[in-house]
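Hello,

Following up on my earlier ticket. Below are the two sequence lines again, exactly as submitted.
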Amino acid sequence: MKKEIILTKEITKIYKVGDIKVNALRGINLEINEGEFVSIMGPSGSGKSTLMNILGCLDKPTSGFYYLDGINVMDLNDNQLAEIRNKKVGFVFQTFNLLPRLNIIGNVELPLIYSRREQSRARKDLINEVINSVGLAEWIKHKPGELSGGQRQRVAIARALINNPAIIMADEPTGNLDSRTGEEIMAIFQELNRSGKTIIFVTHEIEIARHSGRIIYLRDGILCGEELVKEPVDACKMLENMPKLEDKINNFSNNNSNVI
Amino acid sequence: MKRILENIKIAFNSIALNKLRSFLTMLGIIIGVGSVIAVTSIGSAAEASITENIQSVGSNVITITPGRERPFSGGSERESFREVQRESDESRTGNSRPAEEPGQGPGTGGGGFIGGVPMIEEEEEEEIVAGELYLEDVSALKEKSGLLENIAPVLTLGNLNFSYGSSSGNVSVTATSEEYPSLSGYEIDMGSFFTELDVLNATSVVVLGYDVVTDYFGKINPIGEEVKINGEKFIVMGTLKSAGYTFGMSADNSIFIPVTTAQNKLYGADTISQITAKVKSEDFMDAAIIEAKSILREQHSILPGEPNDFEISSSEQLLEMATSVTDTLVITLASIAAISLLVGGIGIMNIMFVSVTERTREIGIRKAIGAKNRDILIQFLTESTVLSLSGGTAGIGLACLITWIINTFTTLSSLITISPVIIALAFSTIIGLLFGIFPAMRAARLSPIESLRYE
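Thanks for your patience. The regenerated structure is below:
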């Protein structure tokens, strides 16, 4: 028997833009089990980001029920929601949303500061361990502005992982990255999923969605279908087959030096 | 604790990122705190200097001056007030004082007043009529008083023409008796002060103040030299050491002659300006004043019930008056300086609002990863407090600079005491919290989703 980690019933979200009401979500019923890797797909304006924000407890639905790991999120106040965001959910954004003035350690450490856990020695080790796991050990003193897009997204993932949340949520995590870097990020997500984390992410690219186990389709604020992926794409294998841009460039420069 | 340090670190980073802006914001607090501390320390230095000046003369000195009619406005009003005052006095002390004006004036005060009239010092409500003082009054006091000593007449003649050889100018001339040096604390430099005999015989001798000697004689020994005061010949008998300033006036530019000589040759009248005397012990101040009063009333043949035609004041009263004047001045100046603290606080509030708007996205990110409203509130409150407190600390530095300048270029020796420093630091902390609370609350209430969308 699989445990439901996310359960929504008839979730709606209405935005007021001036006098006009916009029905962003009109009754979403969703069940996601622990350990699943789910992608949400839909065209622009289908409400997928709105749904993601609600699932990640950044926003509250206008009506309906939302149970996260058995907790009725509708009953929680701002502070309790903040605690859920801090401990239960790790959120990864399309635009990374790192603090530009803090170095990588500072950015990754941030959720720990708000979780009020005092364990200075263990804390340092934990931060280093998480940064290592996303492959940024050499960059710990750098600031986000000095990193590439892919590296920044790795920092964001490390930040999402630091409090060891049960669920990782990502809103178009590869949207701002080239295909190879995107594939690298997906490889990290797949590895996290294998280690037991529930992962939910939003994308509008079917190739990216095919990395997950289940694809949920959203249109005009309603779930219009879902598809189980029988053989998810293995990002590591994809990477092996993809030519490395650096290698190509190295080849060129080698050839050039030969010519001269 | 770690979180507080974290917040202070964030605050300093944010201040360092906008150095000029932060400095300009702090400037209001710097000037405010600096001037409050400087004004209070300079004020207390001025007060100490005045107190020292008065006490160098001695707090047991009394001064008797001739009566001058006090300008009162409403006659009947005054009468009724006096009447009430006397009644309340009587009810307070029994019947210690004889009625000064038996039942006169149309508006004898209603009994209902009595309780409400504030207690007023006896000296202040006493009526004085015009009168004069004479050398005979001095003799009478010398003869009859058991509590006073060093009783000296003083006749101030103001600035008179003074010449020695070819140089001439104006100096302040004071005529007095041989008792004067022991009253005033002036010390003889060369020669001697004139004697009782000089006063009796009205000899034409003069004692010169320090500046007069340096201005007119330079390196010449002035003793025995002949000088002219308003054309009259005088022989220099002695000179005084420098005495410094009291109330901005100095004895150094004064000369002293026997009172009798002054009356005969320069003044043309037999009155004097005041009588100065020492009370043998500070314990008998009140008794000595009462004694002097009764001697002078007898001497002036004032009938019981009639007002005095002279006034007696003590150096203690002078001290109180001077202290209250400087206190008022310091309070006024410090309040004006405090207004600039308030303006500085408004500047902080303004810049904190700007900072919150600029960092909306940062607030969104922090909230998205679990910062509670309280965390954001404390972060921005810490920042405004650090801003204000840094300003306060720099303000203390400014105050040190100001007092150093004052000490270097004037005779005052002001010292920054710990209490205004503590008050200023506490005050700037309060200002940081008070004016930071609204911007911080705005930041804390931002919704995470909207702040993340903010560009």
